[in-house]
UniProtKB/TrEMBL annotation:
Location of the UvrD-like helicase C-terminal domain: 292-548
EC top class named in words: isomerase
Reaction catalysis annotation: ATP + H2O = ADP + phosphate + H(+); Couples ATP hydrolysis with the unwinding of duplex DNA by translocating in the 3'-5' direction
UniProt lineage: Bacteria, Pseudomonadati, Pseudomonadota, Alphaproteobacteria, Rhodobacterales
Organism: Thalassovita litoralis
EC number: 5.6.2.4
Name under which the protein is recorded: DNA 3'-5' helicase
Length: 617
């Protein structure tokens, strides 16, 4: 039964007090600004739990959480899944904005006027420069003015808005836009890009007030996570649906970590949101991740980010930070840097038996592959596994494979078969099966059928793997039963990630290749699962991909002019890297790089903040 709001308690181990508790229980729209490690994701998970546990979001009303990246959306869904019972968690939908737009389009496609309506089996395309150039070349005979635009300009022009097929007078630009939309929609099946999907979803809610009201009426509460990264087009869709409706919106973000500026993120998004939704602003001032020395450095560096005086945050941790929490290392050569890093990790692992290789991350802004080449031999001779998360296997980098729905599904099956519980494998299997089979988990029939299908697959997995080592097993055998042809076809419709069948096949192949790599030398199934998930390996990762993650020790390399070119988002990138650390950060400089002119202000600031740069030989 429902918990009374005044009796509700946060999940054990999670401290929610003061402003955070006010946000959790708020009945009006709010924007929440918080620094790294302030528990933004956890705050939303707790708010969802509160609203569902207390019945303030009563059945059949739902909570919509919109994140701007697939990882963030999944992370939040998982946390709510762990904090609420299954019945409640079903009314929490964590989606990327693209997935939300796709849902609107799929549900209300018929509401579009015929000339704008894609075929029901439309495919999502990802047009790049070459794609536009090819289209222009195909059409230039009938439309000689098409080359007035270079391919990128052409793509921007035609995807800049929905064409008005009723317009009588058309400019040259209108004609080109019409040409593209007509061709793309008439294609069999229709081809639409993410930008077109957003525009079509927007067109539906703009022209169909009943649809707009129905969507807003479904979601009593709306969460906007990582709001600093929202673009104008994305925000417009949210505003159009929810402005002046009773839905309560909570937007959470961190302007310091805004690294999507190049993708069109709105710099003043929080004040715009405040005006549109009458949302007051709250600030969270604790950092639950990093020790006090790292938090002090984060505070010092915040001054680089804004002209306004930054609001200092405080570490919520009471333990003493290690004396070597922050250090800068200067190496003569990059080779010496590789040796120095692997020696440091080896020594740390020997000194502290609680540390494991996966507690370390080596972060670089760019060139992860070259870095791997330089480091690998040193790590091999130290006997430490190194995994380059940016290494590409087929169409995906490892860091994307491990978040891919197909990979998660197959790994969850192996986990269920071998009793590995972390990462809620049952939920992953059941939800994947339910979505590809079109089963509604809120009905008894849908829930029972999903359960049956999951059980059959787990039994099959046990049967075919039990007498074998991972290296002797042919993963294709499991893939063909878990993902037969008809399920693959449905996957391409259900998941916006899978652009088309050929892409999905390439993803499946990449998952199989990654499985084979990880199985090599794994004596048993639990080790294989660990290898797949990157346990017991030091990771190399690009800073962009490290957002939302945390590590005991962060080693920040390539801090030089090869990787930093004085871009507008340099400071934010730097900030993201630094704030991933719980206990220690190392900044490493190699003197045989291109130099340090572009990072000079960071180096000065670091030294002013007491980070000692010492030569390591
Ligand atoms: N209220 C809390 N009480 C105790 N621990 C918390 C609380 N909130 C978060 N944490 C812990 O602090 C760490 C950071 O939390 P979380 O990932 O939610 O922060 P975030 O603000 O989303 O981080 P970032 O934006 O830097 O990635 C996690 O280890 C989380 O478990």
């Amino acid at each position: 039964m429902f918990v009374k709001p005044e009796d509700w308690k946060p999940t054990p181990g999670i401290a929610i007090e003061g402003t955070a508790l006010e946000v959790v229980k708020s009945t009006s729209s709010l924007s929440v600004l918080a620094g790294p490690g302030a528990g933004k994701t956890e705050l939303l998970a707790q708010r969802a739990t509160y609203l569902l546990n207390t019945g303030l979001c009563p059945n059949p009303k739902r909570i919509l959480a919109v994140a701007f990246k697939a990882d963030a959306a999944r992370n939040l869904q998982e946390r709510v899944g762990l904090r609420c019972d299954a019945q409640e968690a079903r009314r929490f939908e964590s989606l990327t904005l693209h997935a939300f737009a796709k849902r609107i389009l799929d549900q209300f496609r018929e509401a579009l006027p015929e000339p704008l309506r894609p075929s029901p089996d439309y495919k999502i395309i990802f047009p790049n420069r070459d794609f536009w150039a090819e289209f222009q070349a195909e059409q230039v005979g009938d439309h000689p003015d098409i080359h007035a635009f270079n391919p990128t300009q052409f793509g921007t022009l035609v995807q800049g808005g929905v064409p008005d097929f009723n317009a009588v007078e058309l400019t040259a630009r209108d004609r080109l836009r019409h040409l593209w939309w007509k061709t793309a929609l008439a294609h069999k099946p229709s081809q639409i890009s993410f930008d077109m999907m957003m525009l079509l979803a927007m067109h539906i809610v703009q022209t169909q007030p009943l649809v707009q009201k129905a969507i807003a009426g479904t979601y009593t509460y709306v969460f906007l996570d990582e709001f600093q990264d929202v673009t104008r087009q994305q925000y417009d869709l949210i505003r159009r649906i929810f402005k002046e409706t009773p839905s309560v919106l909570t937007a959470v973000g961190d302007t310091n970590q805004a690294i999507m500026g190049w993708a069109g993120a709105l710099p003043d998004i929080f004040s715009t949101f405040g005006e549109d939704f009458g949302a007051e602003n709250r600030k969270l001032l604790f950092n639950y991740r990093s020790n006090s020395k790292i938090v002090a450095l984060i505070n010092d560096l915040s001054g680089l980010l804004t002209d306004e005086p930054p609001v200092p945050t405080e570490s919520a941790r009471k333990d003493d930070p290690p004396p070597d929490a922050l250090e800068g290392w200067v190496f003569k050569t990059r080779d010496a840097e590789g040796a120095g890093i692997s020696n440091f990790i080896k020594a740390s692992l020997e000194e502290n038996p609680e540390l494991r290789p996966h507690d370390f991350v080596i972060l670089t802004r760019l060139y992860a592959n070259q870095l791997e080449d330089r480091l690998l031999l040193h790590f091999v001779s130290s006997g430490i596994r190194l995994r380059n998360e940016a290494r590409q296997i087929g169409p995906l980098a490892i860091q994307d494979i491990v978040k891919d729905p197909v990979f998660l599904f197959l790994t969850a099956l192996l986990k269920m078969a071998y009793g590995v519980r972390d990462g809620s494998p049952f939920q992953v299997c059941r939800d994947t099966i339910a979505s590809v089979e079109g089963l509604d988990l809120s009905t008894d029939r849908g829930a029972a059928r999903s359960l049956r299908l999951v059980q059959d697959l787990v039994d099959f997995t046990i049967k075919v793997t039990k007498e074998k080592t991972p290296a002797d097993f042919d993963i294709a055998q499991l893939i063909s039963v878990a993902l037969p042809d008809d399920r693959r076809e449905r996957l391409t419709r259900v998941y916006a990630d899978y652009r088309n069948r050929a892409y999905l096949e390439a993803v499946i192949e990449a998952c199989a290749a990654f499985y084979n790599e990880s199985a090599d030398g794994a004596p048993d199934w639990r080790t294989l699962i660990g290898n797949l998930e990157g346990r017991d390996a030091v990771k190399i990762m690009t800073i962009h991909k490290s957002k939302g993650l945390e590590y005991h020790t962060v080693i920040f390399v390539e801090f030089n002019d090869d990787a930093f070119w004085k871009n507008a988002d340099d400071v934010n990138v730097f900030f993201v890297a630094l704030s991933r650390a719980r206990e220690r950060v190392r900044f490493t400089l190699a003197l045989d790089s291109k130099g340090f002119a572009n990072v000079e202000r960071f180096l000065t600031k670091l030294q002013e903040s007491g980070v000692n740069f010492k030569e390591v030989v």
